[in-house]
């Protein structure tokens, strides 16, 4: 199932991909389910699967404006330097890290699929970072690695756009360079976790004007999805709709 958030006729809504179009879910699942986030909170994915079996789309993809799949997540965690060759790229002769490097981003630093990102006038170093992002479907605290997969609501794509020179302003953090408004993008939709037999060998490919710049697989992650969910939930309770950007390959 592919879940998405969008605007049409200046009205925000959410839905599911059906036959290369969009079926709106607003009003079809009860008053308590009014967004992708509340759909996960209500564990209503089964109802969606029943709805789409014999349904027609309400809108074409060209008729909608994509929003980030979860427009206002409570938390967006990002993981730095999480591919083996990415660690080598830094060439600082450091050993492999024992723990992941985690930082946070604001929802306002992202736009949806096909949205225009902003190159800020303060820098000419806007850079791309193609990644897979986890969207939490079932919340929890101190989640074990063994149980982590069932907490994954789905996966989406993310360009974790970065103002490279501003990441070097602070000695111990990259917050400034990671949170300029509208410098990254998420989407177009969430592919639900049940669509994946495994999360351990997924391809990550980034193209810039058609040219492949990044190409790797999650088999080369230093910290796999299950570890990240377990580690992050140790210090912060995860809730449905939270996003974890799992790191970008070299390139």
UniProtKB/TrEMBL annotation:
* Keyword field: Metal-binding
Q: Where is the Fumarylacetoacetase-like C-terminal domain?
A: 75-251
Alphabetically, the GO molecular function entries are: catalytic activity; metal ion binding
Q: Name one GO biological process term.
A: small molecule metabolic process
Name the InterPro entries for this protein.
Answer: FAH, Fumarylacetoacetase-like_C, Fumarylacetoacetase_C_sf
Record-linked Pfam families: FAA_hydrolase (PF01557)
Report the family membership. Answer: Belongs to the FAH family.
The protein, known as: Fumarylacetoacetase-like C-terminal domain-containing protein
- This chain's source organism reads marine metagenome
**Source taxonomy lineage?**
unclassified sequences, metagenomes, ecological metagenomes
């Amino acid at each position: 199932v592919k879940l998405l958030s969008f605007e049409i006729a200046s009205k925000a809504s959410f839905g599911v991909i059906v036959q290369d179009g969009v079926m709106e879910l607003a009003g079809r699942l009860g008053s308590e389910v009014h967004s992708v986030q509340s759909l996960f909170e209500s564990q209503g994915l089964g109802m969606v699967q029943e709805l789409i079996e014999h349904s027609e789309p309400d809108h074409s993809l060209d008729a909608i404006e994509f929003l980030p799949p979860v427009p206002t997540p409570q938390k967006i965690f990002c993981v730095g330097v999480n591919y083996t060759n990415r660690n080598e790229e830094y060439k600082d002769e450091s050993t492999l890290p024992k723990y992941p490097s985690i930082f946070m981003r604001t929802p306002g630093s992202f736009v949806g699929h096909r949205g225009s990102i902003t190159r800020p006038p303060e820098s000419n170093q806007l850079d791309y970072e193609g990644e897979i992002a986890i969207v939490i479907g079932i919340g929890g605290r101190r989640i074990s690695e063994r149980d982590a997969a069932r907490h994954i609501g789905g996966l989406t794509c993310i360009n974790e756009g970065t103002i490279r020179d501003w990441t070097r302003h602070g000695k111990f953090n990259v917050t400034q360079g990671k949170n300029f408004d509208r410098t990254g993008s998420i989407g177009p939709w969430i592919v639900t976790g049940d669509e994946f037999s495994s999360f351990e060998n997924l391809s990550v490919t980034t193209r810039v004007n058609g040219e492949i710049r990044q190409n790797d697989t999650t088999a080369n992650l230093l910290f796999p999805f299950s570890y990240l969910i377990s580690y992050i939930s140790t210090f912060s309770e995860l809730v449905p709709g939270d996003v974890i950007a799992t790191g970008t390959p070299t390139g």
